[in-house]
Amino acid sequence: MSRLKGILSCIALSVAIVACNWNSDRAELIAEIGGRQLTLKELTEVIPDKSSAEDSAALADHYIQDWVTKQLIIAKAEASLPEELQSFEEMIENYRSSLMIYAFEQEWVRQKLDTIVTDQEVEAYYNENEKNFQLKDYILKVKFTALASDSKNISQVKKLFNSTKPEDLVKWEQLCVDIGASYFFNEEDWMKWDEFIKQAPLEVYDIEGFLKKKKMVEFEKDNNLYLISVVDYQLTGSRSPISFERDKIRSMIINKRKLALLDTMRKDLYTKAQQDGEIKLYYTKK
Fold this sequence. Notes:
By secondary structure, the protein is of the alpha+beta class. 51% of the residues lie in helices and 14% in strands.
């Protein structure tokens, strides 16, 4: 600190209010304006210990000038802004309270919330809220592969792709891995049309007509051969399949539990405080 004090005493500032006189009464004071003070202790906390004398002086000079400028702006604001624009205490307290409540409720939920949702609960929610599960997109289940159009394995891939035998499905997937072909198939997974079209560069202008008529599609583009089998589909406006909505429903059920848990916690706190005589209300209901 003695090194820094020596450096600071030599800093030439253009701001006349900086105090560099090291008398006994103001030995720790670096700058003062409008009753606000910058002390040596505050300054040393922003200067790295291993800084050279030259770097320390430069950092100190920069910090002091920034500090003084900030205080000047604050003083100007206090003098010119209407009183209602200067009242931040309530705003700050409300913000602090909101943060405290949020942090407490998040921790309460983390400790208390049951996140296990059974299939029976999902199905019950699905059936009770049928109107909420209308499709806004075309969805489909699709078997898909894409491989180089000059591949020597085309015949074998086609044979396995078109087979309905479970063992051939496994062989098809393994062959695609071996030759580096793209492939996709999952009997349980629905795919939105926009997601599907990113994988298969089709030009389709009548999506509904395509889904109703096309079960098998084969075409070449950009030196790739594409094989597509539409296994199932649902049109927009129809009831969304439960398998497509399952994850969404689970989230809805858990969120509903969360809201109920927090509501119960608030009511319990209020009731207990009433019973313990902690609440004093100085008004009467009309």
